[in-house]
Amino acid sequence: MRSLTDSVTKLKGVGPKRVADLATLGIDTIEDLLTYYPTRYNDFTPTDITSAKDKQKITLQGIVVSEPLLTHYGYRRNRLSFRMQIGREVIVVTFFNQPYIKKQVTLNQQVTVMGKWDATRRQITANKLIKEQADQQNEFGAVYSVNKHIRQSVLQSFIRQAYEEYGNIIPTYLPRALRQRYRLMDRRQMIKEIHFPQTQMTAKAARRTAAYEEFFLFQLRLQAIRRAHRQEDGNRILYHNDELKEFIANLPFELTDAQKKVVNEICRDMRQPYQMNRLLQGDVGSGKTVVAAIAIYAAVTAGYQAALMAPTEILAAQHAEKLSRVFAGTHVHVALLTGALTVKQHQSLIAAMKRGDVNLIIGTHALIQDDVEYANLGLVITDEQHRFGVNQRQRLREKGDHPDVLAMTATPIPRTLAITNYGEMDVSVIDQMPAGRKPIQTQWLKSNQHAEAIHFLREQLEKGAQAYVVSALIEESTALDVQNATDLFQQLSADLQPDYKVGLLHGRMENDEKDKTMQQFKAGKIQVLVATTVVEVGVDNPNATIMVIFDADRFGLAQLHQLRGRVGRGDRQSYCLLIADPKTDEGKARMKTMVATNDGFKVAEQDLKLRGSGDVLGKKQSGMPEFKVGDPIADLKMLQIARADAGNLLATPNWDNIDENQPLVLYLQRHELETHFD
Ligand code: ADP
Ligand code: MG
Q1: Ligand nearest to the CA of 426
Q2: 522 versus 398: which is more confidently predicted?
Q3: 149 C-alpha to ligand 1 centroid (Å)
Q4: pLDDT higher than threshold 80 for residue 491
Q5: Where would I find the Helicase C-terminal domain in this sequence (predicted)?
């Protein structure tokens, strides 16, 4: 019996050599071949000359009405031109430096040329000529991405053969109701039209079907995993509602509506008997920490322990300091697990955790290491979760007895990415800042406006402000980063001292030296802190209101936004100065985006547009799936719809017993092993 999983060797003309050739394109089976979609189509359909725009790339078909004339000029340069009649109009066709074309141009014959249209002079600068009348088939043909091992025409013939022999056993995955609703093709027709379309229109329609199908299948898999997780045992964290309410009422401020909403979402998850797996997103300063504190408090009132994992020791220490204050006088006992502990201290802390004497433990990924045991870990919170790999995420979920997991991030992840990337997680968003925050004012200066920047800085320092000055990022070398920061430090010291004290902070300094500098900055003994990007995370000084970033165009948008987030934390007006002479349009666009908006989500969306989805977190790191046809950015709406449709199908009782859905059931079974994305 034939099956789509048959090897390509079943095709005529595919021997060991061809098998190896096809494998270089990732093609092993008939199915691989049939879903090796074209990257584009050659379109030789003539353009309507009356509506062609100046400089447009067009295809023209007409009759040659003058002998072709070849003229030589300059050093080895030549021009070939002839007249061509299209309908009633006669236009001029010119080829540069392709003298051999002359042989293909015969008076009174029909030809097709492609090139750039000059609307005023009514002529085309052509680069391609097709002799004779292109027949319908060739007018519009699929073009595949190939390599030196295999030619277009060879690949095409294999695809055609595969379709002819296996086309009638291609199953359709998408349920009829969905195909009807969105006017999609069945799978067999889709595959036919994507490879051998008659017109641009049918090719487009086929690609639309393919994109939707791709999104739908991907979402179906993600959500099937999520459902499977939910059926696993989790803890029902039955927190003490009155105590929790009292805790919230005793906070020094009222929660924003956005905070209330996410607190409800989290609490609802915690009460449920399945394992919470939730991503909490909120811009820097939106108040995630207090939300985390509420969740921790809830877990503790239910008799559970909580763990908070930060990406660096500095951040862990800061969380410990903040949360110790928040929980002072409650029965939450906070401990910090750091590398700075002596062996003895470490051991006694581990023992206290095992006994359950400590009910909030804060640290880096040391928290999930093997010697750490918990009495009854109910909740794990990670901060800046994108810095942890998928493996670590999974390891966390497995630590203890299926704790609930809350992952916090200040790196705004556009909805698109959140859906694709963290599709196995639920997402909560704090999309509102606490009242009274003044938006940071951002300005972009050129490097020759250095004096202006210093002038502004002095003015602000005079008013009692404190400033960060960040030196350029040099990707290749930390040593150069340090050098840069040191140079800038010396220059600013010369500019500002002795009136103001300037400090220096970089990654090559000893830890206690760093600490000392930061303490001085916090205490106001240093007014200007020159630093490499180490300040991106880890320095928290609410009195700092100025952020100056040198060579700002060397930073990505996300990083610029993160750096800017170091200021604007109090109720005083804050400023961000970007100093940059970007050379590219993209660099300019980044500066303009920063000036235009303070909203991290808008910044992130813009970042996506400028760089493309693959780059935002780095493809590897983001685990972003690659789609063959669908574009999760351009086709976001479709992705969202497919997500909802997949969810609805899975929620339909007995969906997997319905005949029509058997191909989908098989599909899920076949891909079960691939469902771990790491
Ligand atoms: P994030 O962790 O999201 O960057 P934080 O939780 O550190 O933000 O909050 C930033 C600051 O805002 C903190 O000083 C915090 O006490 C304060 N804050 C948080 N929520 C509110 C609120 N609802 N009203 C006023 N201030 C708040
Ligand atoms: Mg739970």
Answers
A1: 2
A2: 522
A3: 59
A4: yes
A5: 449-614
Pocket test for ligand 1, best of 290, 383, 437, 563 (most atoms within 8 A of CB): 290
Q: Which residues surround ligand 2, an ion (CB under 5 A)?
A: 234, 270, 276, 404
Looking at residue 669, its pLDDT comes to 86
Q: What is the mean pLDDT of the chain?
A: 86
Q: Which of 348, 372, 562, 369 is nearest to 473 (CA)?
A: 562
Ligand nearest, relative to CA of residue 292: 1
Q: Does the pLDDT at position 205 exceed 80?
A: yes
Reply yes or no on whether the pLDDT at 534 is more than 80. no
Q: Buried b vs exposed e over 49-71: b needs ≥16 C-beta within 10 Å?
A: beebeeeeebbbbbebeeebeee
Q: Name the residue at shortest CA distance from atom 20 of ligand 1.
A: 287
Q: Go through the chain and tell me how many residues it has.
A: 678
- 405 contact partners, CB below 8 Å, separation of at least 6: 275, 276, 277, 278, 379, 380, 381, 382, 393, 396, 397
| Tens digits of residue pLDDT in 65-123 | 999 999 998 888 999 999 999 988 999 999 999 999 999 899 999 888 999 999 989 99
Q: Which domains does the chain have, with CATH numbers?
A: 47-135 (2.40.50.140), 241-430 (3.40.50.300), 441-597 (3.40.50.300), 641-671 (no CATH)
Q: Tell how far the Cα of 571 is from the centroid of ligand 1, in angstroms.
A: 12
pLDDT in tens, 642-655: 988 999 999 999 99
Atom of ligand 1 nearest to the CA of 259: 23
Contact 470, 577 (CB under 8 A): no
The three-state DSSP-derived secondary structure of 475-487 is CCCHHHHHHHHHH
Estimate the crossing angle of helix 187-195 against helix 152-166, to 10 degrees.
160
Ligand closest to CA 569: 1
For residues 7 and 599, give the distance between their C-alpha atoms in angstroms, rounded to a whole number.
52
The pocket around ligand 1, CB under 6 angstroms, is made up of: 253, 255-256, 259, 282, 284-290, 410, 434
pTM: 0.64
Q: How far is Cα 106 from Cα 364, in angstroms, rounded to an integer? A: 77
Cα 264 to middle of ligand 2, angstroms: 13
Query: How many percent of the chain have pLDDT more than 70?
Result: 88
| Separation of CA 191 and ligand 1 centre (Å) | 53
DSSP string of 415-459? HHHHHHHSTTSEEEEE--PPTTPPPPEEEEE-GGGHHHHHHHHHH
Confidence check: pLDDT of 578 > 70: yes
CB count, 10 Å around CB of 76? 7
Tokens matching residue 517: 């500098």
- Ligand 1 centroid vs 251 CA: distance in angstroms? 11
Which ligand 1 atom is the nearest neighbour of the CA of 540?
7
Q: Per-residue pLDDT tens for 233-280? A: 677 888 889 999 999 999 999 999 999 999 999 999 999 888 888 889
The atom number, within ligand 1, closest to the CA of 430 reads 3
The stretches of 566-661 forming alpha helices (DSSP H) are 585-596, 600-611, 619-622, 636-651
Concatenated DSSP letters for 640-667? HHHHHHHHHHHHSTTGGGSGGGHHHHHH
Average pLDDT of the segment spanning 409-438: 76
